[in-house]
């Protein structure tokens, strides 16, 4: 069920559809204003209900605990009810944090008011719509409408990115190799990477190989 527009918003929408003579601008502007207004009302309603429930549940839990402690001796039912309410409260908090009802309410309401304000300027031929012919004014007005919706879309993408940023940071941290792990290319603090034999000169290589041969002979003698 879609939220219904209030009387003031419905009258403004009807007047807007009557005064804007261009059919494309008319349909686009009326659609955007109605969509953002309904979305703001939808998120406002959900935000108010969830806030009311989050205020109500702690009060009920307190009253149930007092009633079970001082009036009835058996408190098993109170423990079950309290646990259920507590779990519901945690779930509601996660739902509110996920759907961002308050942020969406404010964002949609702001966009609807911007569209309304811009339409008032255009219809009353106020700046920047007081200079130029009718075609230029319509083009300027249409460009401004699309700029408002584009900015709102950009804000929505930023909000969506912020809501998923903790998960991205955790995934990136999990993919980062730890210091000192073979193949990670990182060494613990104070450790120095050994130079491979390919970076040594020929005499140095012979010296190292000769030393390795002497150590191997000593080990064979000890084992024998």
Would you kindly provide a written description of the structure presented here, covering whatever features stand out?
77% of the residues lie in helices and 0% in strands. With 224 residues, the protein is an all-alpha fold. The protein has one domain. Helix 2 packs antiparallel against helix 4 (101-123) and helix 4 runs antiparallel to helix 5. The termini are far apart. 8% of the residues are buried. The model is unreliable at 178-185, 191-200 and 214-218 (pLDDT under 50).
Instruction: Report how far the terminal alpha carbons are from each other.
Output: 92 Å
Q: Any idea what the shape is?
A: elongated
Question: What about the largest sheet?
Answer: none
Class by SSE composition: mainly alpha
* Helical stretch tally: 6
Report the strand count.
0
Note the beta-strand portion: under 5%
Give the tally of structural domains: 1
Helix content: over 70%
Structural Rg: 35 Å
Spell the H/E element sequence: HHHHHH
Essential attributes:
224 residues; mainly alpha; 77% helix; 0% strand; elongated
What would you say about this model in short?
This protein has one domain. 77% of the residues lie in helices and 0% in strands.
